[in-house]
Design brief:
By secondary structure, the protein is mostly helical. The protein has 3 helices and 2 strands. A two-stranded antiparallel sheet has the order 1-2. It is globular and about 40 Å long.
Length: 70
């Protein structure tokens, strides 16, 4: 299990660190913390973020395609 910083994960997934914080604040991620209270992210967090992004982009493209037919 690899532990990563928010910057590493944000760069890897090409999203902002504030987006990751937002998803954590709203309960979509179960953020673990080190003893110094810094958040750490593991492989399961990365997979959860990928699923969130997939659902987010699928909904946007669906809305755009629906407007095309209206």
């Amino acid at each position: 299990m690899d532990l990563n910083t928010i910057k590493f994960l944000a760069d890897k997934l090409n999203i902002s660190a504030s987006s990751i914080r937002y998803y954590g604040k709203h309960g979509l991620l179960d953020i673990k913390r080190e003893n110094n209270r810094y958040p750490i992210y593991d492989d399961s967090d990365e997979q959860q973020l990928k699923l969130i992004l997939l659902m987010k982009y699928a909904a946007l493209s669906f809305k755009k395609s629906m407007n095309y037919y209206l």
